[in-house]
Design a protein that fits this description.
The chain has 210 residues and is mainly α. The protein contains eight helices and three strands; from the N terminus they run H-H-H-H-H-E-E-E-H-H-H.
């Protein structure tokens, strides 16, 4: 049990049913991914934060070492909670997520920064496929340079650590696809384009450029 009082983080509800992303992602994967993996990040984050606050409340230099020792757990599980909470919202059942509207500012910037939508899609897919081990592939917005950038992160590192605001992300941990695609990560990444929620992705972009 966690000692944390007041601000326990909670697993967010999915905005669709567990079987809603079939046949691209199975109900079995979605249930495990959300109810087991994401829940574990939330629980472990709450536990680590509880211990952190306990150590902090001692106001003793000896407890600072305990706080430092907890940082990796906070980063990993906090990143997992951030990344998955984001990921669920940019997916939608096949043929309900729409397409990027031709008049959108996001499409305009994609064309400016990557040449064409097709080129962007290929580059992001390649980046996801090329990640060694577990991680995420991203389209991010660089506020300082006012441009879109492709990036990857290892493990559960959040994209914000690179100074980028996430617009679109792909979980390429094996738990995200292995039951459906086995070792065929490329096929999973190519198919996930069918279940992106472009309205939600445009909203992320509109917020990021404010
Ligand atoms: Mn995952």
């Amino acid at each position: 049990m966690t000692e944390l009082t007041g601000t326990n983080y909670q697993l967010p509800n999915l905005p669709y049913a567990y079987n809603a992303l079939e046949p691209i992602i199975s109900e079995k994967i979605m249930k495990l991914h959300h109810l087991k993996h994401h829940q574990a990040y939330v629980d472990n984050l709450n536990t680590a934060l509880g211990k952190y606050h306990q150590a902090e409340s001692k106001k003793d230099v000896g407890a600072v070492a305990d706080m430092i020792a907890l940082q990796q757990a906070i980063k990993f599980n906090g990143g997992g909670h951030i990344n998955h909470s984001f990921f669920w919202t940019i997916l939608a059942p096949v043929s309900t997520g729409g397409t990027l509207s031709q008049s959108s500012e996001l499409l305009e910037m994609i064309v400016r920064d990557f040449g064409s939508f097709e080129e962007f899609k290929k580059k992001l897919t390649d980046a996801c496929v090329g990640i060694q081990g577990s991680g995420w592939g991203w389209l991010g917005y660089n506020k300082n340079l006012k441009r879109l950038e492709l990036s990857t992160t290892a493990n559960q590192d959040p994209l914000s650590a690179q100074g980028l605001t996430p617009i679109l992300g792909v979980d390429v941990w094996e738990h995200a696809y292995y039951f459906d695609y086995e070792n065929r990560r490329k096929e999973y990444v190519e198919k996930i384009w069918q279940i992106f929620n472009w309205k939600a992705i445009e909203e992320k972009f509109d917020k990021a450029i404010l």
